[in-house]
Design goal:
By secondary structure, this protein is an alpha+beta fold. It has six domains: 32 residues; 134 residues, Immunoglobulin-like; 75 residues, Immunoglobulin-like; 78 residues, Immunoglobulin-like, CATH 2.60.40; 90 residues, Immunoglobulin-like, CATH 2.60.40.10; 93 residues. 23% of the residues lie in helices and 40% in strands. It has three helices and 32 strands. The strands form seven sheets. Strands 1, 2, 3, 4, 5, 6, 7, 8, 9 and 10 form a ten-stranded mixed sheet that branches. Strands 11-17-16-13-14 form a five-stranded mixed sheet, with no helix packed on it. A five-stranded mixed sheet has the order 18-24-23-20-21, with no helix packed on it. A hairpin with a 5-residue loop joins strand 28 and strand 29. Helix 2 packs across helix 3. The longest helix has 77 residues.
Length: 582
């Protein structure tokens, strides 16, 4: 019976609740339809940072009761945070109507994107990620403004009902644990590999040292990205140096706590900033085109770096660095005017350097088109050292003409002359030219500094002065006449001496000839006597033995020679007798 009464009470209560619910629905106090609400939110890894820390803020959309397909808004950064870059990696957005971009004027990142059908339903759909760096002490929020989330219902119904901002605090001091009275003070940590806690380094291996203290019996360490983490890895006996290799990119905190007889002391903290990744790839824009006759072409470029940020850019032309340009505000585009360039193809290289020294290059080829060259209309093909050298010509463009004169491959001498309004020019070479052969060429330069190619060289010949040529000619011809006169006199004198000498020789020859013939006759007689003796010796030998073939041949030759000599003696005697009769 008691059970039945309880059942009646329960039914009455349930009926009362439903009655209240339906009355509330009828009055519009409660909406009985499914929830159509969406939220935009910003979340950070933690709420407290130190100066120089990298702050990563992610923007999410939540929509559990209705599919959504369009989002837009603007995220204003806290005043004590510098923007570094924005990334859409991992975003649910299929198509960006407005690519997330940073505007330095209001320190905000704006975005507008779409998710393709059937849209997005769920919690924490990542839209974009913002990277910043804590620059000074203070508190502030990553605040969402002008937010909008549209339902995927065919009507684009606005269903954004709330936004959730992320508040962060930047502190200059480190967080330490409490220490016992009389315990050691926080150790002074240094790093030979990363000596400046405010700078970024590309070295992923960090070395830490702290002073050795004989009273310290143990130490404990920690190394992570949260500066609030308490040391937990103990070393007993203590160590005084620690090397940590292969650290991931980001800001790390190395913390040391020492123990003495009085207990564990205060914690020392050392921050290292590691960035081993180069800035993002980028391209060089040339607003006026890669082919131009502008000798000072304008280029523009810009990129971002996710951690340390772009520090500066290096600009080089044909491998030679010509400028170092500060990066300016994160994500900003730099416009740079190249210094004066000569005609031809140029290789322009821009190198983006982040705060850790990592680099990425971009290259563009430019062609500087030359203006039309001048024309040399008049110049002296030949002149003397005392003549004026006048050069005339005209130019279709350019206000200055540069004349280059080179002698025998020596150093060129350059002079300039301005053109007249009609484009002509006339130039009197200001210094006398020495004797020799010269090469002359010219190029034009306009008011912008644009140059033409040089003209083909022409030849100039500078001779000696006129009076010197006459003197040299007179001297040359006078010397030649004197030489001819003395030559004829000499020839005549020699001829007379030779005639006289010839007559004397004729007399001497007559006496000498007879004397020579007599001596020749006596020599033939003596030779005949020697040959005769040899013949007799060989003939006597034949009576004793038979001669050899060689000896027989020799005997025959000697007999013939003897006969020839006798005839010569006879002829000589007849000649001498004939001369005596004369």
């Amino acid at each position: 019976m008691l059970y039945g009464k309880v059942q009646r009470v329960v039914r009455l209560c349930i009926g009362f609740v439903f009655a209240v619910f339906f009355l509330a629905c009828a009055a519009g106090v409660i909406d009985a339809s499914p929830a159509n609400a969406a939220t935009l939110s910003v979340a950070t890894a933690r709420t407290t940072y130190a100066i120089g820390d990298t702050i990563v803020a992610r923007v999410y959309v939540d929509s559990t009761g209705q599919a959504v397909n369009a989002f837009q808004g603007s995220i204003t950064l806290p005043a004590m945070v510098d923007f570094s870059s924005v990334s859409v990696q991992g975003s649910i957005v299929s198509f960006w109507v407005q690519q997330p971009s940073y505007a330095g004027t209001n320190n905000a990142v704006s975005f507008s994107g779409v998710v393709m059908n059937p849209g997005f339903v769920g919690d924490r759909g990542l839209l974009l990620t913002i990277y910043g760096r804590a620059k000074n002490v203070g508190s502030g929020s990553f605040a969402i403004s002008n937010g909008s989330v549209l339902a995927n219902d065919g009507n684009g119904t606005e269903i954004l009902t709330s936004v959730a901002n992320a508040t962060v605090t930047v502190e200059s001091s480190e967080i330490t644990s409490s220490s016992s009275p009389g315990s050691p003070a926080a150790p002074s940590i240094s790093s030979p590999s990363h000596p400046d806690q405010t700078k970024w380094y590309a070295d992923a291996t960090a070395v830490f040292t702290w002073p050795k203290d004989a009273s310290v019996t143990a130490v404990r360490l920690v190394y992570d990205k949260n500066k609030s983490t308490l040391p937990a890895v103990s070393y007993d006996p203590p160590i005084w140096t620690k090397t940590i290799a292969d650290s991931a990119d980001g800001t790390w905190y190395f913390r040391v706590q020492e123990k003495t007889a009085a207990g564990w002391g205060a914690i020392g903290t050392y921050r290292v900033n590691i960035d081993t990744v180069a800035p993002h790839d980028f391209t060089i824009a040339v607003p006026n085109g890669t082919q131009t006759d502008n000798p000072r072409p304008v280029i523009s470029f810009g990129t971002t770096d996710d951690l340390s940020g772009v520090d500066h850019y290096l600009v080089a032309v044909d491998g030679q660095t010509i400028g170092t340009i500060p990066a300016g505000a994160p994500g900003s585009v730099v416009t740079y005017t190249l210094p004066l360039q000569t005609p031809g193809q140029k290789t322009v290289t821009v190198t983006a350097v982040d705060a850790a020294g990592n680099t990425v290059n971009s290259v563009v080829q430019l062609t500087i088109v030359p203006i039309p060259p001048p024309v040399i209309d008049q110049y002296p093909l030949q002149s003397t050292v005392d003549d004026s050298v006048v050069i005339k010509g005209h130019a279709t463009s350019g206000e200055s003409i540069f004349l280059t004169l080179t002698q025998n491959g020596g150093a060129p001498v350059v002079e300039s002359v301005s053109t007249t309004p009609d484009g002509t020019f006339a130039f009197l070479w200001p210094t006398p030219l020495s004797q020799g052969r010269y090469q002359l060429s010219a190029y034009a330069v306009d008011a912008r500094g644009a140059q033409s190619n040089p003209t083909p060289p022409v030849s100039l010949v500078i001779n000696q002065q006129a009076w010197m040529r006459i003197a040299m000619s007179s001297l040359m011809y006078g010397s030649l006449g004197a030489f001819i006169l003395f030559f004829l006199i000499g020839i005549t004198f020699v001829a007379l001496l030779m005639v006289r000498r010839l007559r004397r020789l004729q007399k001497e020859v007559g006496i000498g000839k007879r004397k020579a013939e007599e001596e020749l006759h006596q020599a033939l007689i003596r030779l005949a006597s020697h040959v005769h003796n040899h013949v007799e010796i060989l003939e006597k030998t034949t009576s004793k033995r038979r001669l050899s073939e060689e000896e027989s041949a020799l005997l025959t030759e000697l007999r013939d020679d003897m006969k020839t000599i006798e005839e010569k003696i006879k002829g000589t005697l007849e000649t001498l007798d004939h001369q005596e009769k004369k």
